[in-house]
Amino acid sequence: IPKQKMVLSHWPLMDWDDKDQDTLHIHGGKLHHNLEDGYRFNANCDKWSLKPIELETLKDIIESKKSQLAY
Q1: Where are the extended beta strands (E) located within the chain?
Q2: pLDDT (tens digit, 9 = 90+) per residue, 5-52?
Q3: Phi, psi values for residue 31, rounded to 5°
Q4: Which of 31, 35, 42, 69 has CA 20 to 30 A from 9's CA?
Q5: pTM (2 d.p.)
Q6: Max CA distance (Å), the chain
Q7: Alpha helices in 1-71, H assignment, sequence order
Q8: Cα distances (Å, whole numbers) of residue 39 to 23, 36, 49, 58, 62
Q9: Which residues have a Cβ under 8 Å from the Cβ of 49 and sit 6 or more positions away?
């Protein structure tokens, strides 16, 4: 996997360092709304059948979201 800058936190952030330079924000807070936007991702295990998510799977999902947002 190529290098990828990330910001990890429990809660979703609206802004983070290098957001405009493809730095990903991965959070695990349990929320009732979806803030995923191609660069911010909720990795809470409740969303993933109580299993950890592989970084490669996460990157595939993020790339898919980014391409959807480009249209």
Answers
A1: 6-9, 24-27, 40-42
A2: 889 999 888 889 998 888 888 888 776 556 666 678 888 888 888 888
A3: -125, 160
A4: 69
A5: 0.71
A6: 32
A7: 55-69
A8: 7, 7, 22, 11, 7
A9: none
Say how far apart CA 14 and CA 19 lie, in whole Å: 10
CA dist 2 and 54 (Å) reads 14
Please write the tens of the pLDDT for every residue from 46-70: 888 888 888 888 878 877 877 776 6
Question: How buried is 7 (Cβ within 10 angstroms: 0-12 exposed, 13-18 middle, 19+ buried)?
Answer: middle
Q: Extract the tokens encoding 59.
A: 């990157």
Q: Determine the residue type at 64.
A: S
**Rounded distance, CA 15 to CA 71, Å?**
23
